Amino acid sequence: MNDRFAITTPAQLAAAYEAPHPRFLAKVTDRLEATSLAFIAASPFCILATTGRHGPHATPRGDAPGFVVPLDDRTLALPDRRGNNRLDGLRDILDDPQVALLFLIPGVGETLRVHGTARITTDPALGSRFAVAGRLPATVLLVMVREVYAHCAKALMRSGLWAGRERPPGVPTNGAMIAAHTAGGGIDPAEYEAEYQARIKAQLY
């Protein structure tokens, strides 16, 4: 690989891409509103991203839909189920509490991104809310939400990840989430969704 093509500055990076549309920069909210809550309630799987003294980790987390529970509009509770006990992600949080969650729903191309800070608790009252077959999680991760936004379906469409699966009923559309997450944007959810569906198919590559 020729190093003269390496990108090492923000200016070089920006020059390699078209500028993002302003609405893509504005589609961020700082709390869990109705569409975010509906998406999380329907999600049986998320990826927890952390970083610590040993570098970054991305950890899969899954359970029945709605296994991540909102405690209020800025706090999520995520039970830590039985695993290999390496505890890479949890150790990272002790080093650096900044985390990201990526929620997926089978059959849905869009994903939901949540960024914030986390802390780990062994509170028995909270843990009891997540009991399954009499077993409590060892710990519960509390995520204090800083940013929430929907991510478009292009990656999942290109990969064919959900090929043959239908979108479950009741999951908010991308247009609904964008409208809810864009402060003062005046976006019509149905109009945005129709434009989005036409655009995304034409701009996969």
Describe this structure in words.
This protein is α+β, with helices and mostly antiparallel strands and 205 residues long. It has a seven-stranded antiparallel sheet. The chain has eight helices and seven strands.
The strand count comes to 7
Note the run of SSEs as H and E: HHHEEEEHEEHEHHH
Strand proportion, as a percent range, falls in 25-35%
Compute the average pLDDT: 94
CATH topological fold name = Pnp Oxidase, Chain A
Low-confidence stretches: none
Helix content percent band: 25-40%
Biggest sheet: strands side by side, in what order? 2-1-5-6-7-4-3
Ends distance:
24 Å
Largest pleated sheet: 7 strands, antiparallel
Structural domain tally: 1
Shape: globular
Number of continuous helical runs? 8
Which radius of gyration do the C-alpha atoms yield? 19 Å
CATH superfamily: Electron Transport, Fmn-binding Protein, Chain A
Domain Pyridoxamine 5'-phosphate oxidase N-terminal: 37-152
Organism: Dankookia rubra
Protein name: Pyridoxamine 5'-phosphate oxidase family protein
InterPro entries: Pyridox_Oxase_FMN-dep, Pyridox_Oxase_N, Split_barrel_FMN-bd
Gist of the model:
The protein is of the alpha+beta class. It has eight helices and seven strands, in the order αααββββαββαβααα. Helix 7 (174-181) crosses helix 8 (189-202).
Descriptive terms for the model:
205 residues, alpha+beta, Pnp Oxidase, Chain A, globular, Pyridox_Oxase_N, Split_barrel_FMN-bd, Pyridox_Oxase_FMN-dep
Secondary-structure topology with pairs:
Elements: H1 10-15, H2 22-26, H3 34-42, E1 45-52, E2 55-62, E3 69-72, E4 75-80, H4 88-95, E5 98-104, E6 111-121, H5 124-128, E7 139-151, H6 154-159, H7 174-181, H8 189-202
Antiparallel strand pairs: 1-2, 1-5, 3-4, 4-7, 5-6, 6-7
Helix pairs in contact: 7-8
